[in-house]
Design brief:
The protein is mainly alpha-helical and 152 residues long. The protein contains 6 helices and 3 strands. The protein has a single domain, classed as Rossmann fold. The radius of gyration is 16 Å and the shape is globular.
Length: 152
């Protein structure tokens, strides 16, 4: 992988996340210090995946960023958490299947402990919960919604 390609992966996944957080925090604090930040990491950031070293590194760094932001905002009632999806039915997963020479994205689901691909709605449900009042005591967490992919 070239430096330019590595930088592009980091820019989109890590720097983009930081820029969004930096843009949102002043508004969250101005609203009386109540708010929720939820970043999208990845099971790849916990595992490291073949041919995806830059992506794995970027998503691992997103978790570190969220933990630091959570500490910085802990006394403000603004929480910061990450969700780490596993193999979820998306166009990106279809592209990964091509990269790995698999017949389809369904092959990833067969490799997960739950034996299936996850649906985007399963990720969305966790994100919605993290944005709700029910999660007010959760900050700095990285919640795996990965079908058991990172159990071991």
């Amino acid at each position: 992988m070239t430096d330019a390609a590595f930088d592009a992966v980091m820019s989109v996944n890590l720097l983009g996340t930081r820029r969004l957080i930096d843009a949102a925090v002043p508004t969250l604090l101005a609203n009386g210090g109540y708010g929720r930040i939820v970043a999208i990491a990845s099971a790849a950031g916990q595992l490291g995946l073949r041919h995806l070293a830059a992506y794995s590194a970027a998503k691992h760094a997103v978790v570190g960023l969220i933990r630091g932001v959570a500490m910085d905002l802990a006394e403000t009632n603004v929480t910061a958490n990450a969700v780490s999806p596993g193999s979820t039915r998306t166009a990106m997963l279809d592209a990964s299947a091509v990269l790995y020479g698999l017949p389809s994205a369904e092959s990833f689901g067969e490799q997960q402990p739950m034996g299936r691909l996850l649906e985007p709605s399963e990720q969305a449900a966790m994100i919605a919960w993290l944005c709700s009042p029910h999660s007010s005591a959760i900050t700095g967490a990285n919640l795996a919604v990965d079908g058991g992919m990172t159990v071991n």
